[in-house]
């Protein structure tokens, strides 16, 4: 994750053991202790803290503008690319704060991959789409085997194995999204972030992605942003509900509560959560 000589280097390097989380419970791969996120003078999110356990799917839900995607993109420092972005707090990955000055944001994204809302394959062949990150990271192993492995992990191999040299842009929307997932998992990230990965897909493609998530969590811890409450119920082990604070004249998102998905939907602790999951507002 870092440029330290003690850190593993290159895709496929053995990962160090996941340390106990800050609450003393082993298995927390991420600890988010967000005090505030700013875009310029605008405070986008405040006071949001949660743990993400290894080998689980965590869903971020809540109304538009509540900061779900901002928090998600802060985890692997994608927001560093946004002008005026400022993060206050800590995000610990395996016990190390990814916002420490010595940490290379590019290295963070090697271990914490991302799949975006819109399928965004590169204008190159299916094979080269998947191999792109491997080459970028200087992978020295068998490239053909790793590309096949990634495509199998994304449940796409059987559909594209005879047309690997064709453009990834020629695939259907659902296939393109699975290609992007293959590209993301090819470098074997420990955590996979998914920002509304099914919002641009039809119901059949959505089912395939949801089924794929259950397979992927055997190797990757997943955090997903979704507006689809039924999707959160279907795929997530843990759900975190974000809401919008308008009491000071602005719109600042914050975490209301987080817990096991079944409990959060059936017996939420907070009134805002209860209203949202009941469909009282969107």
Task: Describe this protein's structure.
The chain has 282 residues and is an alpha/beta fold. It has a single domain (28-277), classed as Rossmann fold. The chain is 31% helix and 25% strand. It has 10 helices and 10 strands. The chain has helices spanning 68-75, 105-111, 126-136, 143-153, 157-160, 173-185, 203-216, 229-235, 261-266, 271-277; strands spanning 28-39, 42-53, 57-61, 85-93, 96-97, 112-115, 191-195, 221-225, 238-245, 252-260. A 10-stranded mixed sheet has the order 5-4-1-2-10-9-3-8-7-6, with helices on both faces. Helix 3 (126-136) packs across helix 4 (143-153), helix 3 (126-136) runs parallel beside helix 6 (173-185) and helix 4 packs across helix 6. The longest helix has 14 residues, at 203-216. It is globular and about 55 Å long. The protein starts with 27 loop residues before the first strand and ends in a 5-residue tail after the last helix. GO terms for molecular function: ATP binding; ATP hydrolysis activity; phosphate transmembrane transporter activity. Residues 11-22 have a biased composition (Pro residues). Residues 29-277 form the ABC transporter domain. Keywords: ATP-binding, Nucleotide-binding, Phosphate transport, Transport. Residues 1-25 are annotated as: Disordered.
């Amino acid at each position: 994750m870092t440029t330290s000589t003690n850190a593993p280097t290159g895709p496929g390097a053995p990962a160090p053991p996941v340390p106990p989380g800050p609450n003393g419970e082993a298995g927390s791969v991420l600890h988010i202790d967000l005090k505030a996120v700013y875009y310029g003078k605008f405070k986008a999110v405040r006071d949001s803290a949660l743990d993400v356990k290894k080998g689980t799917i965590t869903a971020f839900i809540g109304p538009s503008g509540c900061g779900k995607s901002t928090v998600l993109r802060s985890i692997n420092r994608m927001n560093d690319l946004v002008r005026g972005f400022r993060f206050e707090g800590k995000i610990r990955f395996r016990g190390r704060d990814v916002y420490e000055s010595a940490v290379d944001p590019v290295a963070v994204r090697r271990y914490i991959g991302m799949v975006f809302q819109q399928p965004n394959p590169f204008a190159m062949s299916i094979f080269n789409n998947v191999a792109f990150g491997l080459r970028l990271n200087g992978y020295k192993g068998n490239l053909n085997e790793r590309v096949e492995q990634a495509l199998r992990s994304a449940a796409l191999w059987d559909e594209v194995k005879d047309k690997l040299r064709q453009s990834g842009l020629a695939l259907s929307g659902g296939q393109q999204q699975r290609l992007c997932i293959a590209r993301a998992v090819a470098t074997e990230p420990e955590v996979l972030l998914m920002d509304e990965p099914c919002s641009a897909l039809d119901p059949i493609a959505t089912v395939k992605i949801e089924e794929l998530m259950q397979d992927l969590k055997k190797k990757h811890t997943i955090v997903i942003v979704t507006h689809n409450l039924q999707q959160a119920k279907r795929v997530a082990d843990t759900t975190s509900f974000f809401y919008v604070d308008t009491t000071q004249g602005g719109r600042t998102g914050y975490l209301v509560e987080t817990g096991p998905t079944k409990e959060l939907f059936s017996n939420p602790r907070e009134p805002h959560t209860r209203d949202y999951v009941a469909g009282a507002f969107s």
